[in-house]
Amino acid sequence: MPYTVPPLTYDYAALAPHIDEQTMRIHHDKHHQAYVDRVNGALEGTQWADTPIEDVIRDLQQIPEDKRGVVRNHGGGHLNHTLFWKFMSPQGGGAPSGDLAAAIDAKFGSFDEFKAAFKAAGINQFGSGWAWLVKDADGLAVISTANQDNPVTSGKAPLLGVDVWEHAYYLNYQNRRPDYLDAFWNVVDWDGVAQRFAA
User: Is 114 in contact with 142 (CB distance < 8 Å)?
Assistant: First the structure.
């Protein structure tokens, strides 16, 4: 089965004013669809056509070199955005609790220090990319990736990520990426992050 853009579980306008309806419509319906179309085209007729996208991106070296760049960029874009819609919720915001909160405090010192590190990763990602909270063999970490690279390729599990490509925020925030990153905290689905952490 070819990949498809997963439907949002909330309305396009549900994250406003933090992320506006028009940005969500263009981002979900146009940008994500373009990634899906390109990766489907690259993998059509290959042994990987029915492989879950996370498995494909986890082991990019298995993809023939003539297709690997397209799959890395567009398959990565599909995986990243599939996660991104789940990272957010109209009922989001606040702070984590339980084991996740304890792990964040233990690693970063406090929730506020974690937020500062995560924001810095997003601000300092030159050009397009993502900031992530990941879990790996050493525990939690904040990293950034360029373009549509995903942490699974380097053996890390993405728990939370924010898209810092300009298409994710430019209609509402123009060149004010820090303001967009501040607004993102109002829509983070911490229950979902905690479930991924527990898994």
Answer: yes
Q: Is residue 178 helix, strand or coil? A: helix
> What are the boundaries of each domain within the chain?
21-87, 98-198
Residues of the chain below pLDDT 50: none
- CATH architecture type of domain 98-198: 3-Layer(bab) Sandwich (3.55)
Phi-psi region of 109 (alpha: psi -120 to 50; beta: other; left: phi over 0): left
Give the span between the Cα atoms of 75 and 127, in whole angstroms. Answer: 19
Which residues have a Cβ under 8 Å from the Cβ of 109 and sit 6 or more positions away?
A: none
**CATH of the structural domain 21-87, one choice from 2.40.10.120, 3.40.50.1360, 3.40.190.10, 1.10.287.990:** 1.10.287.990
pTM (two decimals):
0.96
DSSP 7: P
Within 16-155, strands assigned E span 129-136, 139-146
Each residue of 22-40: pLDDT tens digit? 999 999 999 999 999 999 9
pLDDT at 1: 81
Tokens of 5: 């853009």
Taking Cα atoms as reference points, which of 102, 128, 98 lies closest to residue 114?
Answer: 102
